[in-house]
Queue: 3 jobs
Job 1
Amino acid sequence: MNFSDELMHALANWQRGWRENQEKREQLSNELSTAVEDLDLKFKKVSSICYRKRFLHNGELVDIILKDEKKEGVVSWTIDKEFAERFKDLKKDGAVSGAIFEHYPSDDEVVVNICELWKDAGFISAANDFKEKYPEESKPLFYFRDSQGEVVLTSPLKASEIIALTGASSPFDDLCDQVGIPEMQRDDLFRELVESGQTPGELRYTSREGAQQIIDNTVRKIYEKVQTYKSKHGI
């Protein structure tokens, strides 16, 4: 199979990223989609669940939560759940929350399975040839390889597929007040919690059940407000 330099350039540029420049992302996604057109179908399949870490913003919550579908175009997912959890920390200025989506993609949603490419001896040989010819351009390709478990999909974001949201527990003193722990005992308790990996107030992911409960409550409250508004205005 011929793994062209065009393909290597497109993969390397995609993995170099676009620094949140959406016009650049669109350009790179078009180049990648074109470059992978002639790949064997085995590189356009994913046989495992995929995960995407994504920060959520107010302007897109209607599509994600109420419509349960926000199309993003061509984007990167991962087959490595732990990588998704580590990706880009737990909070971002201006974001409502961080979320992890879990999805099993259909074949028509798969642009390219980068992990599968790196299992192929022919691809590895072509990548090494590309590296000799274009040492600078090939750096992202060899820096990331398949270490991120990356697969490129066109799958939409769905609130029903969120398995975790970021949120913080109540401040430590507030928790102590609620359960009646005297101030003189709090230092020892805090030390014990830190040593056991349960630091209060630390930003962390919810459970799958907790995430879906938050989403269900949000949807319910929104519809309650809509009904109240309609009743008030005779709609």
Job 2
Amino acid sequence: MKTWTTALLGGAVVIALVAPTGAQEIRQDRKELRQDRRDIRSDRRDIREDRKELKDTVKSGDKDEIQEARKDLKADRKDLRSDRRDRREDRRELRRDIKDRKQDQ
């Protein structure tokens, strides 16, 4: 009987500790999504600037600068893809956490 009581009490403590964690995970997921959106906006802004820089550099005709501007543009596009991937993963994580929270209730 003492073992069952201890097990039930231990289970209750674990549930009490896990429930707030679910809400905290959801808040953290939303915070990460906001940061992902900021990163994506920043990447888009950088790409626009890089395109303008590349256009101006092409007009100047300096091959080394053109190559450097293309590398910058390529790097910013890669960052954008990475940030979009992060956003997708964070959205999936948020959905999973919300689903888990609903099942626990």
Job 3
Amino acid sequence: MNYLVKILSDDSGEPREKDFQFWHYVVDKGGTQTLCEGEFFGKGESGCEFETKTIYRGGITCPNCLQQIKEIKAIKL
């Protein structure tokens, strides 16, 4: 399952432009944050407004998150 977040405003309540409201992949590294920029969100983490969703596959629209995922997938173990 993919846990995604769309940040609608920053900590100070300043709304983000629609062109910069992407669905980011969520990671939990001591708090819920976006994969690409490590931006924290959630109760007790940040004062920003956000939406979340959980989907089975895909749904990530953030170009930075997608780039990082592609780089990770390219690693040969």
